[in-house]
Amino acid sequence: MPIALLSVITIIYASFSTLRTIDVKELIAYSSVSHAAIYLLGVFSNSVTGIEGGITLGLAHGFVSSGLFICAGGVLYDRSSTRLITYYRGMAQVMPLFSILFFILSLGNAGTPLTLNFIGEFMCLYGTFENMPLLGALASSSIVFSAAYTIYMFNRISFGGSYSKFFSLAISDVNKREFIILFTLVVFTVLFGIYPSPILDGLHYSVSSLIYVSP
């Protein structure tokens, strides 16, 4: 119970911190703290669904968060030497391929259906609801918060104005190496989001034994 309460406080506090930042890498980092609190909540929910969801969300977060950090640091910062969201308006005009990959990873960060993050987050919250309905309801606020700051980030970077208004130098789209890395993370996120059975089937026996079999 104390860990679950701490997790809910972390979810809400980290989400508010994420909403007010204008640094793209800080935004992704704070959102990672919020999502880490969700899968911590699932692991300590003392239910098979919650524990499986916590492990699944941890795996999903590894795909999506890695991809977003590559987008922010390995692509955007490498080309422009700034991390402020304000200066990235209109990136879709000059980096369309990057914007598509960035969009799918952003959907995963927001826990959108057909992504592995949705499967993990839903199972974490459902498992929490089984034993702690009030904390589960409070933790569900992360659904709204994650959508808010992720949509803000993507919209302001990819759209939100004219690109040429802020940069005088031309910025190239993703190269072959960057595309392969980001596309691989996107494929795993979407593929397991549509068909999560290979992950969940592998977890079910071990998690059930952990909960129901006495040592």
Automatic annotation (TrEMBL):
MF terms (GO), sorted A to Z: NADH dehydrogenase (ubiquinone) activity; NADH dehydrogenase activity; ubiquinone binding
The NADH:quinone oxidoreductase/Mrp antiporter transmembrane domain is annotated at 3-145
One GO cellular component this record assigns the protein to is: plastid
Protein name in the entry: NADH-ubiquinone oxidoreductase chain 4
A GO BP entry is:
electron transport coupled proton transport
Domain of life, per UniProt, equals Eukaryota
The record's listing under InterPro entries reads: NADH_UbQ_OxRdtase (IPR003918), ND/Mrp_TM (IPR001750)
Q: Name one Pfam family in it.
A: Proton_antipo_M
